[in-house]
Amino acid sequence: EVQLLESGGGLVQPGGSLRLSCAASGFTFSSYAMSWVRQVPGKGLEWVSSISDNGNRPFYADSVKGRFTISRDNSRNTLYLQINGLRAEDTAVYYCAKYGSSWQYFDYWGQGTLVTVSS
Amino acid sequence: QSALTQPASVSGSPGQSITISCTGTSSDVGGYNYVSWYQQHPGKAPKLMIYDVTNRPSGVSNRFSGSKSGNTASLTISGLQAEDEADYYCSSYTSNPRVFGTGTKVTVL
Questions:
Q1: Cβ A97 vs Cβ A37: under 8 Å
Q2: In this structure, are residues A83 and A66 in contact, taking their beta carbons and an 8 Å threshold?
């Protein structure tokens, strides 16, 4: 059974940093691209970042480029999102999502971790 | 990258069919046969319902079907049931490489 378990969310002050983690199990982690998707409470889904199976190709939404860094450790079956320079508008639930056999769709999602940016 | 456009809400009675549209551009929906649809119940993670425009993952009811014409994709739910009440999001591959729709709240009357 595929499982994605996010952690690392919490309350942080504006300008602060966080590192989100996503522990994966139930599939060959190193064979699949992964992604982070966020959702402001009560609002829609927003794609944030994606990374190739070997970690060599990261992609970012314009809204987070230069502040967020996606990475992965295939030996630990873990996906990361380093978030710097946090802003109030970054407050959201952050989901880890697994791509299907290609980059075309997300076939599994974690339950999400809430990041709240407030002073 | 602008979000794909969906109607804010769609409603129907049990047993009826409803269709949710998802309008993009030739750079996303119209340019690739890589539209997917996700169902999200309140407080839950999204769930894949349709991928590559028309394909259903194993375990998803055949009451859900997808199609595309030009820059607009559609999700049809036939035989509407109470459990179908949820938010639905479309998504398309782009060069960026992903964009989501604005979301549609489906209400079962």
A1: yes
A2: no
Residues B50 and B56 sit within 8 Å (Cβ to Cβ): yes
User: Are the Cβ atoms of B97 and A103 closer than 8 angstroms?
Assistant: yes
Give the phi and the psi of residue A90 in degrees, each rounded to 5.
-85, -5
Give just the sign of the alpha carbon dihedral A115, B3, A108, B10: positive
Instruction: Tell me how far apart the alpha carbons of residues B16 and B108 are, in angstroms, rounded to a whole number.
Output: 9
Q: Do the strands A3-7 and A18-25 form a parallel or antiparallel pair, or are they unpaired? A: antiparallel
Question: What is the per-residue pLDDT across A37-54, written as a single tens digit (0 to 9) for each?
Answer: 999 999 999 999 999 999
- Give percent above pLDDT 90 in chain A: 95
A112 alpha-carbon distance from chain centroid: 9
Residue A69, number of CB atoms within 10 A of its CB = 16
Taking contacts as CB-CB distances below 8 angstroms, the residues of chain A near B48 are: 105-108
Map tokens 């690739």 to a residue: B32
Alpha carbon of A47: minimum distance to chain B alpha carbons (Å):
6
Q: Which positions in chain B have a beta carbon within 8 angstroms of at least one beta carbon in chain A?
A: 1, 3, 34, 36, 38, 40, 44-48, 51-52, 57, 89, 91, 93, 96-103
Q: Tell me the DSSP string of A67-82.
A: TEEEEEETTTTEEEEE
What length is written for chain B?
109
Tell me: the pLDDT tens digits for B49-103?
999 999 999 999 999 999 999 999 999 999 999 999 999 999 998 877 788 999 9
At B32, which amino acid appears? Answer: Y
Flag if B98 and A47 touch (Cβ within 8 Å).
yes
